[in-house]
């Protein structure tokens, strides 16, 4: 514990840790850039597909099969394969992160819509709502707690796994870990690990706020 505390104080009390390309602000900015980009792309793909599948009830088995198969993909192996075939760049870094994030968003969105009591959409249709209105005004608000859980899970997985970007010479807090291991500088390794954990906690805090904003009191325990 004393050694760990020494590494932490040595890293965070060092003025050089807060400036320059390898400084904490820049590395955290890079890390969250990868995370946010990957999450946006994953939501853009998985959220509407999960809504449509859950609303129509079509393709549920295929969706679950593909999503579970995607979970089995080795993220680091996919990254290396993409870099070898596509060359260095941001796209090979983002693709495995997006693939990692799609399954929880897709499955939770589908399950959130399908778990709704069928009396609710039937009543909405009886009031003259169109299919789209039923989905947006009746089903989506009730399914939102489970959907947000899927998005939160995806975001935490991305922010934790984005450290692999450093393995192919990109930035983020993973750069500190990789460089520290290469130099046997455990101050950098510990500092990078703590920053990665802190980034995950920030993501959880953001989704806690979103839960309070987007979900009514009566549905928060759902």
Automatic annotation (TrEMBL):
Highest taxon above the source species: Bacteria
Keywords per UniProt: Membrane, Transmembrane, Transmembrane helix, Transport
Residues passing through the membrane, by range: 32-52, 73-102, 154-174, 186-210
Recorded topology in the membrane: Multi-pass membrane protein
GO cellular component, one term: plasma membrane
All copies of domain ABC transmembrane type-1, residue ranges: 28-207
Compartments it resides in: Cell membrane; Membrane
One BP annotation, GO: glycine betaine transport
Predominant location: membrane
UniProt cross-references to InterPro entries, sorted A to Z: ABC_transp_perm/SBD, MetI-like, MetI-like_sf
Family label: Belongs to the binding-protein-dependent transport system permease family.
Protein's UniProt name: ABC transporter permease
Annotated organism of origin: Hoyosella rhizosphaerae
């Amino acid at each position: 514990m004393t050694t760990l505390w020494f590494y932490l104080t040595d890293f965070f009390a060092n003025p050089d840790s807060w400036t320059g390309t390898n400084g904490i602000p820049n590395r955290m900015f890079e890390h969250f850039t990868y995370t946010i980009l990957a999450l946006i792309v994953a939501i853009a793909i998985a959220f509407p597909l999960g809504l449509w599948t859950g609303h129509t009830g079509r393709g549920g088995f295929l969706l679950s099969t593909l999503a579970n198969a995607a979970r089995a993909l080795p993220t680091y192996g996919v990254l290396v394969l993409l870099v070898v075939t596509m060359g260095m760049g941001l796209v090979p870094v983002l693709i495995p992160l997006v693939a990692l994030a799609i399954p929880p968003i897709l499955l939770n969105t589908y399950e959130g819509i399908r778990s709704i009591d069928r009396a609710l959409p039937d009543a909405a249709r009886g009031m003259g709502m169109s299919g789209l209105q039923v989905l947006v005004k009746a089903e989506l608000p009730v399914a939102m707690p489970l959907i947000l859980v899927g998005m939160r899970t995806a975001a935490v997985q991305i922010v934790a796994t984005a450290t692999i970007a450093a393995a192919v010479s990109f930035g983020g807090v993973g750069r500190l870990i990789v460089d520290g291991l290469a130099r046997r500088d455990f101050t950098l390794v510990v500092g990078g690990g703590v920053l990665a954990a802190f980034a995950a906690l920030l993501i959880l805090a953001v989704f806690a706020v979103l839960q309070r904003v987007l979900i009514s009191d009566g549905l928060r325990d759902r």
